[in-house]
């Protein structure tokens, strides 16, 4: 299991080439050949090559991990490296960013890649009527200027030190300018593999591009067949009977059986994916910080990891920053289950006991209702009476989340601290599911965003995590691991990315047949 | 006429599902504005009766509409090339027909022969064993049978692949091999009904005077059953075969999911999950039409097989 990683490249990506070079020793063992067959969950008949609509693992893997490229890439070690961008530089206020693009790159249809493609591909996300999850990222760019065939300058509305990280987002794929519609229909990208056939929700076949710029560093398979297998037993069976070489989302309940098979290996990483119980802190009794603290000490996090995740996870500390983040505060004091402390804080709030409602449905996360019941049991020792309300799965996100004062929720996490905080914890944003207002926290959020100095940023983000952990309105009981499995015929560099499942969803590029 | 009543039932049932496409697709991102925007794009904000009659009108002119997923995608692209529901369903439907065909080719002769043999050796050990086995298999849930077959024929003895991911351009032999396990599962499910009916129909006739006559003439029991009893028992047998064929088209949902077979059943499940109403409605309608058509065929065939009905006085 890979522990958290440190990523320190910020102001300049000039070192990207050096980092890529350090990847070579592991890759030297790699060899070309073979057809990789993947059995992947998360496929839909509505899937398309439009990066704006990608939301589940099947298309995330095929899109940014196989057929298309982004400007930047988070490598297996968690460092930011250039993908279609070679290097980048920021002005001291982190407002103006200049990107130097890789030269000699062509799309699968032969069109050379350049600055126009970048600008048009980004504009897709803010086009009239477009529903893109990456819209906020692109909307923060006030101006895009083509400085040369292979140089683009972005001006942001406000300084953002994480800007290059944001461009590694799997929605922001590079399409050929002027041919975007055709590229979306056929899947024409600059990636290591070109599309041979694609049947949405069923199957995709891709083959390696000759003379690709990643040659020697990635893309070892001759071709890849990615089969959509949403049913979890069918997926496990396919791996056990050798009809696929790797599968994602291993069912925890059958994991022991898979392990017993000598031809199968499980690979598991703790990433940023976490489960939460957000409370609306502008509603009584959650507006009282002592009540929130009592609730924080009333939950047995280890028990949740053991019983809900069956051990496939790590305990949370009431902030949303995970081990795959750059400035994850691993030394922060861990909140422990302590009924005495919980009842102490309850008394501080002027109460002997309290009755609260917790709304949960398994739509929030698998096992959410069971988790709420475990919480109920552990909190009762401190005089906290949790009444678990089981909500219907359908419409959960519209009718319960953000509406009921206390409920269950999940977040897949974000690649950067600022992104995560400003998605769900900045005051006034639509997804702020705890309505938590803390002046110092908001101030740090704004300062941290434009700060380019790594050490100062670390300090800022560590303080924010500590603030949230102590006083915030969200209980984060656990991080859920990404658990995938592969046949022993496959080999990898030994470092497995933890940003997404399946080695940062780039198994097709990074692995090879042993 | 029946289809129109069916269409009304389908429409009511599908729209009674909790949640809708907008909520299902947006998931956690379902803010009130986003949900309203998608609903407006798809016409989900229109009153029910208006939507029903638009759909019915389209259906009567052979236009089953465009799937929500496609429409949502198109609105992202500025609205161009839309694939109709029919176009989306057609290849999947062909796959399901292929599976049904393979199953029928195995199951129908198998069941009829078993039924005849069971009637011939009625109350023997063979008869009882056949009855027990087929009744057990029909009483078990399909996914359970599927897993049993996977265990014995794919995991322990790798004879057939457990994954039936057939695709266009696959050779017939390979396609047949991949289809074998789901076909066998369905065979186990449908055999009992057909076999029991064959057996019962024949035994029923064996008490008739003309059979007694035949037997008195000294004809062998096998010949009595095949030549004398079977033709007269055909009507109920054909009926039950048609019923089971309809089941092969409509009831394959679970089996297709377990074996990852890209048929209409899997499409149906995917579409229900995201509440893609046009696709769900179209699938339901196809299922209903298959039932009605096969029942009609059964009626026609049983009339043809019965001289009394063929030549009414």
TrEMBL record, chain A:
<comment type="similarity">
    <text>Belongs to the bacterial solute-binding protein 5 family.</text>
</comment>
<dbReference type="GO" id="GO:1904680">
    <property type="term" value="F:peptide transmembrane transporter activity"/>
</dbReference>
<dbReference type="GO" id="GO:0030288">
    <property type="term" value="C:outer membrane-bounded periplasmic space"/>
</dbReference>
<feature type="domain" description="Solute-binding protein family 5">
    <location>
        <begin position="79"/>
        <end position="428"/>
    </location>
</feature>
<keyword id="KW-0732">Signal</keyword>
<protein>
    <submittedName>
        <fullName>ABC transporter</fullName>
    </submittedName>
</protein>
<feature type="signal peptide">
    <location>
        <begin position="1"/>
        <end position="30"/>
    </location>
</feature>
<dbReference type="Pfam" id="PF00496">
    <property type="entry name" value="SBP_bac_5"/>
</dbReference>
<dbReference type="GO" id="GO:0043190">
    <property type="term" value="C:ATP-binding cassette (ABC) transporter complex"/>
</dbReference>
<dbReference type="InterPro" id="IPR000914">
    <property type="entry name" value="SBP_5_dom"/>
</dbReference>
<dbReference type="InterPro" id="IPR039424">
    <property type="entry name" value="SBP_5"/>
</dbReference>
<dbReference type="InterPro" id="IPR030678">
    <property type="entry name" value="Peptide/Ni-bd"/>
</dbReference>
<dbReference type="InterPro" id="IPR006311">
    <property type="entry name" value="TAT_signal"/>
</dbReference>
<dbReference type="GO" id="GO:0015833">
    <property type="term" value="P:peptide transport"/>
</dbReference>
């Amino acid at each position: 299991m890979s522990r958290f990683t440190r990523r320190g490249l910020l102001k300049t990506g000039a070192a990207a080439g050096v980092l890529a070079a350090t990847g070579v020793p592991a890759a030297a063992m790699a060899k070309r050949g073979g057809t990789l067959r993947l059995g992947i969950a998360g496929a839909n008949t509505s899937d398309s090559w439009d990066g704006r609509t990608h939301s589940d693992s099947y298309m995330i893997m095929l899109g940014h991990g196989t057929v298309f490229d982004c400007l930047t890439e988070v490598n297996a070690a968690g460092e930011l490296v250039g993908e279609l961008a070679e290097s980048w530089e920021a002005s001291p206020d982190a407002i103006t960013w200049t990107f130097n693009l890789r030269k000699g790159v062509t799309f699968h249809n032969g069109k050379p890649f350049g600055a126009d493609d970048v600008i048009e591909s980004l504009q897709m996300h803010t086009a009239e009527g477009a529903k893109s999850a990456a819209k906020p990222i692109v909307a923060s760019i006030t101006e895009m200027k083509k400085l040369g065939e292979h140089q683009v300058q972005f001006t942001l509305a406000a300084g953002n030190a994480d800007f290059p990280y944001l461009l590694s987002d799997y929605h922001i794929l590079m399409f050929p300018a002027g041919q975007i519609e055709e590229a979306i229909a056929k899947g024409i990208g600059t990636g290591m593999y070109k599309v041979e056939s694609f049947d949405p929700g069923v199957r995709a076949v891709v083959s390696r591009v000759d003379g690709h710029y990643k040659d020697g560093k990635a893309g070892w398979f001759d071709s890849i067949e990615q089969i959509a297998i949403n049913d979890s037993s069918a997926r496990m069976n396919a791996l056990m009977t050798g009809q696929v070489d790797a599968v994602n989302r291993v069912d925890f309940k059958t994991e022991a059986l898979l392990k017993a098979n000598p031809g199968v290996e499980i690979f598991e990483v703790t990433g940023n994916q976490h489960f939460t119980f957000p409370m609306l802190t502008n509603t009584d009794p959650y507006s009282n910080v002592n009540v929130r603290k009592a609730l924080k000490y009333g939950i047995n996090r280890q028990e949740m990891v053991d019983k809900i995740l069956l051990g496939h996870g790590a305990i949370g500390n009431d902030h949303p920053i995970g081990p795959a983040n750059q400035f994850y505060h691993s030394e922060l004091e861990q909140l422990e289950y302590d009924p005495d402390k919980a009842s102490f804080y309850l008394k501080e709030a002027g109460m002997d006991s309290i009755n609260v409602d917790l709304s949960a449905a398994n739509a929030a996360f698998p096992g959410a209702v069971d988790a709420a019941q475990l919480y109920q049991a552990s909190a009762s020792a401190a005089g906290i009476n949790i009444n678990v309300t089981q909500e219907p799965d359908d419409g959960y996100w519209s009718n319960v989340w953000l509406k009921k004062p206390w409920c269950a929720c999940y977040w897949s996490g974000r690649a950067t601290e600022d992104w995560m905080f400003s998605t769900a914890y900045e005051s006034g944003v639509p997804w702020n599911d705890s309505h938590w207002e803390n002046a110092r926290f908001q101030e740090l959020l704004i300062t941290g965003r434009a700060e380019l100095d790594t050490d100062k940023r670390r300090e800022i983000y560590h303080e924010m995590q500590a603030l949230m952990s102590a006083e915030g309105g969200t209980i984060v009981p656990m991080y859920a691991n990404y658990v995938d499995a592969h046949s022993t015929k496959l080999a990898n560099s030994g470092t497995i990315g933890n940003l997404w499942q399946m080695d940062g969803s780039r198994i097709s590029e990074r692995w090879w047949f042993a | 006429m029946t289809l129109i009543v069916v269409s009304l039932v389908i429409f009511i049932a599908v729209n009674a599902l909790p949640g809708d496409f907008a909520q299902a697709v947006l998931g956690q991102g379902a803010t009130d504005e986003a949900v309203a925007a998608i609903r407006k794009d798809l016409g989900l904000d229109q009153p029910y009766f208006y939507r029903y009659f638009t759909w019915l009108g389209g259906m009567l002119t052979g236009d089953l509409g465009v799937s929500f997923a496609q429409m949502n995608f198109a609105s992202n692209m500025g609205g161009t090339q839309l694939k109709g529901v029919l176009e989306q369903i057609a290849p999947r439907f062909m796959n399901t027909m292929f599976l049904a065909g393979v199953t029928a080719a195995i199951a129908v002769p198998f069941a009829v022969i078993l039924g005849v043999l069971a009637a011939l050796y009625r109350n023997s050990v063979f008869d009882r064993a056949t009855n027990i086995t087929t009744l057990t298999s029909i009483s078990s849930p399909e996914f359970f049978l599927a897993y049993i077959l996977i265990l014995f024929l794919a995991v322990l003895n790798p004879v057939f692949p457990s994954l039936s991911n057939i695709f266009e351009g696959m050779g017939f032999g390979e396609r047949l091999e991949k289809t074998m396990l789901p076909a066998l599962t369905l065979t186990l499910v449908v055999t009992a009904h057909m076999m029991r009916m064959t057996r019962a129909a024949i035994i029923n006739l064996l008490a008739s005077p003309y059979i007694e006559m035949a037997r008195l003439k000294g004809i062998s029991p096998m010949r009595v059953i095949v030549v004398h009893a079977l033709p007269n028992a055909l009507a109920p047998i054909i009926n039950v075969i048609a019923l089971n064929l309809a089941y092969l088209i409509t009831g394959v949902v679970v089996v297709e999911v377990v074996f990852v077979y890209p048929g209409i059943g899997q499409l149906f499940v995917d579409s229900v999950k995201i509440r893609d109403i046009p696709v769900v409605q179209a699938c339901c309608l196809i299922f209903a039409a298959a039932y009605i058509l096969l029942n009609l065929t059964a009626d026609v065939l049983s009339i043809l097989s019965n001289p009394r009905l063929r030549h009414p006085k």
